[in-house]
Amino acid sequence: MKAKYILENYDRIVKEIKNPKIIFSNDLAPFLEKSASKSYLIHQVNFSFINNEIKYTAKKPIHSLHPRVSKLKFKETGAISEMEQYIPTIVNELNISSNQSSWSWCAKKENTVYLFQDCEIEDLTQEQRFFLYCYHTLKKENYKIKIIDKERIFKLNSKIKSEEYIHQKQYALENLAQRLIKEINPENDSHLYQFSNDYNKIDCLKITYIYIQKLQRFIEKEYKNYLNENGHIPYRSTFVKEFKISKKLNEVKSILLKSNINDQILKLVYEPLLKIETLNFQGKLTYYEFNYCTKIIKELHKQIEFEKLTEEAILDCLFVLNFNSLQLFKYLTNTFLQELEPLENDTQKIYSLFRILKIYNQKQIGNAIKYKTNLPPIKKQIVGWIEEEIEYLNRIVEQETNQLLVSPHKKDEFKFLTNFSVAQLSFFTKILVETNIINHKIQADVIRFIARNFKTIKTENIAIESLRTKFHNVESSTKEVVNDKLMEMLKFTKD
Q1: How far apart are CA 39 and CA 262, in angstroms?
Q2: Contact 357, 387 (CB under 8 A)
Q3: How far apart are CA 18 and CA 125, in angstroms?
Q4: What is the pLDDT of residue 62?
Q5: Which of 307, 139, 167 is nearest to 229 (CA)?
Q6: What is the distance in angstroms between the CA of the first residue and the CA of the last residue of the chain?
Q7: Furthest C-alpha separation in the chain
């Protein structure tokens, strides 16, 4: 049997808020009187010292049934304060009858006093009564829904059915929360939780949104093993507080910004940190993403505790936690290419790549989940790239070997030994070609000739592909060596 839509009363309240005439025609006083044994207004008065004088300001009163009252803390007893002498004057200024009033100091702020004024529910405006009606209706509705949820989950007695029920509930709450946010259109996160003194439509929508969030947090706390990981995590999620993520996040950020870590690595590791930091009422972060980013923050925080938050530690942490972003893939592969650059020939590069392949094959992935669900695990990406690079270089070496076998050197042929490295010889040849000292139209012929007829101190057989690559990609250090040799040659012309 299909489960009844459990947020039916929430939808009814939202309709009433949008069309208050429906409910204003009814007398809400009896309902509110049942919600509290006593009715009174609370005036908050703040004292301050300005130029050695005591000043005070009184805020607009709120009713004892107002949601904000639950956060007020009253001091039962205390030492007599010099500010108490002003209370009779304030009571008189607020037109409060002395026999209908009492007062208490704030337990949190010593310069704040609360004045209590007896009043009747009927004395409140229609807007005030309607706002309080919404608040207490939703409060009772939430209690009822929680009981129903527990009973249904208990009766289902099946993990699959329980998951289906919780997923449906998540979806319904998420949709209603987003609808309310569009209606409220808050300027920022904190604006969602601030009520005006007008008790208007927006205030009523805000209290509805707050109680939707309370239900979302209830589901998180009671049924976290049944949550839909692709559902969006609500702002002020229970998990943020439970894992103390905000505190750990700030500590990790602080250490990272003070360190001398490479900018590219810093940018890499900041990506998941920002996802948690920018969690807001728009609700665009899923539980899956939140859980993953939380793991990274916790692991980095451990490195801080051991004072080992280095570039190497960060990269290891990202790899172990399967941070399979394309940015990390590009960073690691570019690092490998930089290691291969100084090597003289493809054979040496192949040996180096086999060494790197061994290291990454032996690395363990400690995280079953990955950062990007639509991309392969980072280990598979890196190992695949290395294997393709080895295969490519092997083909080049094999092709060059076959070329040598097709046209072997005659016994009386020999190679000229040069003190240049392969890179320096390549650049020197390029200078000869570009200055037309070697005047041959086919550049490939020149490269092939040099590769077959020259050798370096370290390389007996120069790979054509290696010579060609270095012909087009010249490092500044290579230019400096060749330039010095050209200057030396120039001296001979002056002798």
Answers
A1: 63
A2: yes
A3: 18
A4: 94
A5: 167
A6: 106
A7: 125
The amino acid occupying position 484 is D
Does the reported pTM lie above 0.90?
no
**Residue 143 DSSP SS3:** helix
Amino acid letter for position 481: V
Structure tokens belonging to residue 70: 């639950």
Match 């409220």 to its residue by tokens.
Answer: 184
The span from the CA of 376 to the CA of 370, in Å, is: 8
Q: What span, in angstroms and rounded, lies between the C-alpha atoms of 145 and 6?
A: 7
Give residue-wise pLDDT tens across range 23-58.
555 678 888 888 878 899 999 999 998 888 889 999
What are the angstrom distances between the C-alpha of 370 and each of 88, 149, 230, 380, 461? 66, 32, 14, 12, 45
CB atoms within 10 A of CB 443: 15
Q: Identify the pLDDT of residue 214.
A: 93
In angstroms, the Cα distances linking 184 to 10, 202, 209, 213 are 16, 6, 9, 15
Separation between Cα atoms, residue 177 and residue 34, nearest integer Å: 29
Spatial neighbors of 367 by CB under 8 A, at least 6 apart, are: 292, 295, 320, 321, 322
Low-confidence ranges of the chain (pLDDT < 70): 1-4, 20-26, 77-80, 241-243, 281, 283, 401-413, 495
- C-alpha distances (whole Å) from 195 to each of 243, 281, 451 are 29, 17, 81
Rounded CA-CA distance 224/240 in Å is 13
Strands (DSSP E) contained in 33-174 are 40-50, 53-58, 62-63, 101-105, 112-118
- Per-residue pLDDT, 1: 39
Residue 25, Cβ density class (10 Å: 0-12 exposed, 13-18 middle, ≥19 buried)? exposed
What is the distance between the alpha carbons of residues 18 and 201, in angstroms, rounded to a whole number? 7
Contact 141, 176 (CB under 8 A): no
Contacts of 364 (CB under 8 A, 6+ apart): 320
Residues 6+ apart with CB under 8 A from 9: 137, 141
What residues are paired with 417 via a beta bridge?
455
Which two tokens mark 36? 């509290």
**Nearest Cα to Cα of residue 325 among 285, 406, 270, 363:** 270
Q: Are 209 and 139 a contacting pair, CB within 8 Å?
A: no
